Inverse folding.
């Protein structure tokens, strides 16, 4: 049976939103119900710019009524890391067991890219993550394994990834710094979308930052009540010359302690899928893995 794929129409919105929520809510960590208005704003976006690159053109293709499946694609401009334009698959959704629908959508997406002379297709590149999809830095979730399986079967390979870890009902203790470094500790509350502020904890030495931990509210990704209870570590870093002395561990511990004081129930953090040092650190600190996410890519003939 031939699966008809066509351009998205405004009347498809309700069915697409129902499909998105059915596939993700309660299945993919840190994904809560999305309102049709938020999804519509993302689907209708034209040229956008993020992280020093641009998406020059976008299209949404649907199968059947839209509730059968959809693929959101775009043409990414050249940038300092990439000399050629590439095709980006921002999202691919279809119901489990409906592989023919997924195949048809993926083929249509690649055909759209070839028509624009794009030689590379990338699934869920980081700059174009839906703002309400999981927490920052997420790629295609393992919990959407039927979509992962399809793109892998069609020749896509992993080109990046991020692992996510939660510390539910966290009880961090007030930590002491054993690094031996001389610095000033600066704490900044950063109000945002959440009921509780984000946090920025910095180590300042002679006027320069030598380490930093930044937490954001889960409400930056969703207005759901549960999202407000998450403090997500969006950044943890220590200048290279000061690494290996425990400063990063202290900054994270102190930030989580302050987050708990401000009313956050849960902590969350992520790291590159191949950053074994950070992964070992986080899993021995109190965090537990909830999701592996990956970017996939293939060359188009």
């Amino acid at each position: 049976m031939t699966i008809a794929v066509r351009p998205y129409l405004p009347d498809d919105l309700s069915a697409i939103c129902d499909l998105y929520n059915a596939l993700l809510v309660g299945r993919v960590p840190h994904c809560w119900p999305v309102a049709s208005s938020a999804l519509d704003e993302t689907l209708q976006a034209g040229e956008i710019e993020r992280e020093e690159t641009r998406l020059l053109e976008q299209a949404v293709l649907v199968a059947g009524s839209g509730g059968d499946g959809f693929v959101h694609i775009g043409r990414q401009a050249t940038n300092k890391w990439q000399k050629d334009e590439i095709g980006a698959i921002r999202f691919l959704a279809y119901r489990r067991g409906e592989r023919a629908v997924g195949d048809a959508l993926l083929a249509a997406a690649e055909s759209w890219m070839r028509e624009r002379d794009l030689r590379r297709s990338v699934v869920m590149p980081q700059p174009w993550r839906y703002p309400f999809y999981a927490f920052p830095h997420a790629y295609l979730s393992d919990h959407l394994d039927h979509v992962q399986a399809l793109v892998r079967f069609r020749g896509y390979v992993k080109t990046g990834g991020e692992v996510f870890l939660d510390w539910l009902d966290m009880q961090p203790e007030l930590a002491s710094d054993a690094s031996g470094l001389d610095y000033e500790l600066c704490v900044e509350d950063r109000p945002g979308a959440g009921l509780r502020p984000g946090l920025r904890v910095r180590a300042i030495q002679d006027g320069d930052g030598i380490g930093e931990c930044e937490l954001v509210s889960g409400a930056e990704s969703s207005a759901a009540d549960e999202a407000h209870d998450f403090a997500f570590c969006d950044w943890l870093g220590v200048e290279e010359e000061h690494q290996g002395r425990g400063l990063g561990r202290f900054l994270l511990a102190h930030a989580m302690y302050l987050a708990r004081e401000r009313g956050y129930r849960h902590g969350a953090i992520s790291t590159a899928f191949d950053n074994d040092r950070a992964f070992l650190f986080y899993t021995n600190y109190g965090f537990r893995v909830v999701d592996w996410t990956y970017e996939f890519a293939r060359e188009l003939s």
Observations:
- The helical segments are 13-24, 36-43, 99-115, 145-153, 247-261, 276-283.
- The CA atoms of residues 58 and 74 lie 4 Å apart.
- DSSP finds six helices and 14 strands in the chain.
